[in-house]
Amino acid sequence: MAALLFAMATSAWAAGPKDASKSTMASASRPTLAISESADTVTCRGADGKTVALHKRPRRAIINYTSLVGLWYRAGGVAVGMPDTKSRADLPDVARGIATTGHTAAPNIERILSLDPTLVILAANMEKQRALKDILDGAGIETLLLSYETYADYISILDLFYRLNGGNFSADTGARAVVDKVDAICALTRGRPAPRFLSIFASTFDAQAETDLAHTAFMATYLGARNIVEKTTVTASFSRIPLSLERIHMEDPDVIFVTAMGDLGEIRAKMRKDFMESDAWKSLRAVKDGRVHFLPNDLFLLKPNDRFPEAFEALAAFLYPGVK
Known about the structure:
By secondary structure, the chain is α/β, with parallel strands linked by helices.
């Protein structure tokens, strides 16, 4: 395993920066999740590549990924369960009192079954959630694996949720306004010299570098910046790879972003111990210029949904100082 991780990191870092005109902007186009629909069902494609027919207007839905709960309610849905979360402040008022199904990364199957669900939306990026699919399918419960990783998924998932709840995404002027605002922010940075960035995802266990398949790195690239971690055939399926201080030093990014999952004080202490106190880190351009930014969790750890324009605006200000 160690050899594989080293090979992944070496291959990804070795690619070097691309020309800005060849950025991964095209990756914002995702296949439509909904394939077809009838009066009673929607046939859609899950993150596992399988197609499934789901009944519209599910009576008892569990949305087992916190970032999807707001989208489900926005589309007219009602849920009976969702994962534990430290704060429900950003959820719709009507969603704040629903039952919990255990930790996102370790859902409690007994709790899920006790809620007698007719539909369970599972997070495809969580191993233990993927493992639940066969159990739930065997119990006759409709399930769908969804991947909500980047801004590109926002529209396709919201469109699917509207269909499942018997609504129409095209009538949602608020969601259209989100897209228009993001496009306007990106227009301000278009054609400007592309800053080179590194996006770090840190926890109390380790720190990893984000590829353009990850939330923050995707947005920065969408704004025209260049990720020093390039997408290669090795990393095409990975949103994060091992962090190599040696390669960071060689690439010397203009800006560094840090998204922290867990206690921020503990994470900062670990990062200082692991690499931030080293001469190699202190000599980085971004460090000397004061352009290392710890990002707020409500916009960058969780998916911001209707607040995507705020997240893009924050990144644009860090990447292109003075651009308004």
